[in-house]
């Protein structure tokens, strides 16, 4: 049986968004397809992005990159998060670029490359003010020195220098100027020390759209590829959401006034009404915090979920409007029919659209359309 809740992913929207970003930034694109392409399906999305002109792919972990290789994708791929227990030998054999942010990781990657007899492709990560991955100014010289030593020994090739922005969705935030200046300074230091990178990259989605000074040689858009505005407080550049989450009504019935609905009876009907059961719950990615809050499109208009979101289902109160078992319910989408968007859901429950699309459960099939 096919699960009644489905995530429809429009690959033409993915391609259009990639082209828009490349044109807006005037730079090559590294399409970020980590976390199963933000829940959209990594392999189909990666192929669509490459068809639209992306020249690189980006993931978090080496296993994600190797899954792309297993699917026949040969484009350059950067795995940006490399825990110490990463299978570096497999990544090197698969031609996966590795983001390296510590002297220990340089040594581990170099050792794996020497054992394999193939130089590893690495991108040195600078911590320019996010206090997450990479080396700060104080640790940067040691990282550069270790990488150059490994390169001289033939164990690695330094392909890139990179960092990540903390507040690019707020262009006036003081950290933006500080990070931009720090990256320029750290790139300059590395190049004076002898590093000859093919790529220097800093800009994520919102930086690519709104901060020209961060674009360097390549942009790394993630959320924007999927058509979601990475900086909701700023104008949307014309991105189109690629995902539409739908389900179907499984039960429609009349209940009397005063009927408690779902666990805890957080919702009680104030009149005789029709309730409709929708087989999608928090196991499928509908936030439990959306109980009595989130809106979906059903029986011709948007309606709030009535009562508690359960693991596998939620309930709607549709009043006297006609609704039948088998009718479609649109949970979120691009908004063409008046349905909520992923951003609307995020705003309603106090999170970000990134979380809404990446939290979809594994039993929800991703159906790719064109």
From TrEMBL:
Record has Isomerase as a keyword: yes
Reaction(s) this enzyme catalyzes, per UniProt: L-alanine = D-alanine
This enzyme's EC code(s): 5.1.1.1
Catalytic center residues: 34 (proton acceptor), 263 (proton acceptor)
Residues bound to substrate: 132, 311
Record-linked InterPro entries: Ala_racemase, Ala_racemase/Decarboxylase_C, Ala_racemase_C, Ala_racemase_N, PLP-binding_barrel
Required cofactor names: pyridoxal 5'-phosphate
Keywords: Isomerase, Pyridoxal phosphate
GO terms (BP aspect): D-alanine biosynthetic process; peptidoglycan biosynthetic process
Pathway listed: Amino-acid biosynthesis; D-alanine biosynthesis; D-alanine from L-alanine: step 1/1
Domain Alanine racemase C-terminal: 242-369
GO molecular function: alanine racemase activity; pyridoxal phosphate binding
Listed SUPFAM superfamilies: Alanine racemase C-terminal domain-like (SSF50621), PLP-binding barrel (SSF51419)
Keyword Isomerase (UniProt): yes
GO (cellular component) term, any one: cytosol
Signal sequence residues: none
Positions of modified residues (N6-(pyridoxal phosphate)lysine): 34
Pfam assignment, any one: Ala_racemase_C
Record function comment: Catalyzes the interconversion of L-alanine and D-alanine. May also act on other amino acids.
Family from the record: Belongs to the alanine racemase family.
Protein name per Swiss-Prot or TrEMBL: Alanine racemase
Organism of this sequence: Actinocorallia herbida
Native organism taxonomy: Bacteria, Bacillati, Actinomycetota, Actinomycetes, Streptosporangiales
